[in-house]
Specification:
Distance between the termini: 74 Å
Shape: elongated
Radius of gyration: 21 Å
Largest sheet: 5 strands, antiparallel
Number of strands: 5
Order of helices and strands: HEEHEEEH
Length: 162
């Protein structure tokens, strides 16, 4: 086997590394800022007990999320009507940069003690950093809210005659 046969593969490998670096630089310089700015505007405009978090773990992984942290302030009085009611914080919409620079978007639901963790997450897709725009973020927050509403008030299966 001739070594020259590897030239194309070596070139492809170099290009793949450059692609990953370009995506990671775009995340660092643009995408992450758009996420933080847009999510903070949403939190400020609609005070329903959520906050924005910037996460950084392991050397190659960063994320930005919006998470429910407290009960909506304007509904505190109604919780006093049911003393046993307990708000479950922790539902979150997460935009996480993966190892290859793409953005993995998913949501998690609040943890319920002694409940199965099987269906605790919904994957919304993997996207390139340049596809993360303000419009895209707002659409994902809308999807997240729809899923959280279903989680809070699940629809009961209707039987014929009921």
């Amino acid at each position: 086997m001739k070594i020259e046969h590897l030239e194309e593969r070596i070139s492809d490998y170099r290009n793949s590394i450059k692609t990953v670096v370009d995506k990671r630089v775009l995340w660092k310089n643009t995408t992450k800022n758009i996420l933080v700015r847009t999510l903070n505007r949403i939190v400020k405009q609609y005070d329903i007990g959520w906050k924005v978090q910037e996460l950084s773990w392991i050397q190659n992984n960063e994320a930005v999320n919006i998470t429910f942290d407290s009960f909506p302030p304007e509904l505190i009085d109604c919780t006093n009507l049911i003393p046993a009611y307990q708000f479950l914080p922790g539902g979150a919409l997460i935009f996480s940069q993966s190892y290859n620079g793409d953005i993995y978007v998913f949501m998690i639901f609040p943890q319920i003690e002694n409940a199965s963790h099987e269906n605790n997450m919904v994957e919304l897709g993997v996207y390139t950093p340049e596809s993360i725009t303000e419009k895209f973020i707002v659409e994902k927050v809308d999807e997240f809210l729809k899923e959280m509403i279903k989680w809070e008030v699940p629809s009961l299966k209707k039987k014929v005659g009921y």
